[in-house]
Amino acid sequence: MPEEVLFETESRQDRAAIADYLRQVADNLESDASITLTAGDQSVTMDPPSQPTFEVKAEREGPTDGPGELSIEFELEWDENDDGGDGDGDLQIE
Fold it and tell me: What pTM does this model have?
């Protein structure tokens, strides 16, 4: 299935600023509000369903014998015609 990027931005931020972005997303999810992403001339508004699929991934990219790049990815996904789905189990984040 082809992928269409609706919005993308990447910038180095301090941890407190990232927490503010994630907190705003959490507040919007909790209040059933849409989520609007804006950067420069880009903007997209999305309305996650009541039960989207929540994917969390920790990755290391790079050579096996040297330093690489680490990442934590949080993703909400849903079918445009669906109101959510089932998960794999209970996630815990500490």
Answer: 0.81
